[in-house]
């Protein structure tokens, strides 16, 4: 018993006379001393607050998880939409490259034809026509 008293700390509480009488009355109703009544009330309210905080914390976590799940779903949809756009862009680029290749081929043919025509013209002209041209 003496060891228990050595480990305890004294706390002073300032009360009005009415507050003291009310606490005394409530303590007597519960068959407790005023100190024990105050300790029980403070500690039990604290544990209630903890349980309330735990349930609030659980609700907050649940709400946060639901929000994050919604965000993940939204981001997945955005990624899918971006992938579709990217595929369409690749298709358009490929089509454009093929068109430009097709357009360049006739130019090469016309350039080759032009060179051949010039060579043919050179050979077909007589020597004096080549000098004056």
Automatic annotation (TrEMBL):
<protein>
    <recommendedName>
        <fullName>DUF536 domain-containing protein</fullName>
    </recommendedName>
</protein>
<dbReference type="GO" id="GO:0006355">
    <property type="term" value="P:regulation of DNA-templated transcription"/>
</dbReference>
<feature type="compositionally biased region" description="Basic and acidic residues">
    <location>
        <begin position="109"/>
        <end position="122"/>
    </location>
</feature>
<dbReference type="InterPro" id="IPR013321">
    <property type="entry name" value="Arc_rbn_hlx_hlx"/>
</dbReference>
<dbReference type="InterPro" id="IPR010985">
    <property type="entry name" value="Ribbon_hlx_hlx"/>
</dbReference>
<feature type="compositionally biased region" description="Basic residues">
    <location>
        <begin position="123"/>
        <end position="133"/>
    </location>
</feature>
<feature type="region of interest" description="Disordered">
    <location>
        <begin position="103"/>
        <end position="133"/>
    </location>
</feature>
């Amino acid at each position: 018993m003496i060891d228990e008293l050595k480990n305890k700390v004294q706390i002073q509480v300032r009360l009005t006379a009415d507050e003291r009488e009310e606490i005394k009355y409530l303590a007597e109703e519960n068959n407790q001393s005023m100190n024990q009544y105050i300790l029980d009330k403070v500690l039990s309210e604290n544990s209630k607050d903890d349980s309330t905080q735990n349930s609030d914390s659980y609700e907050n976590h649940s709400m946060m998880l639901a929000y994050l799940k919604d965000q993940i779903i939204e981001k997945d949809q955005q990624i899918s939409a971006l992938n579709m756009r990217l595929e369409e862009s690749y298709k358009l680029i490929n089509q454009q490259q093929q068109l430009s290749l097709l357009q360049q081929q006739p130019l090469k043919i016309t350039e080759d034809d032009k060179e051949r025509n010039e060579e043919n013209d050179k050979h077909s002209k007589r020597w004096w026509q080549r000098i004056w041209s």
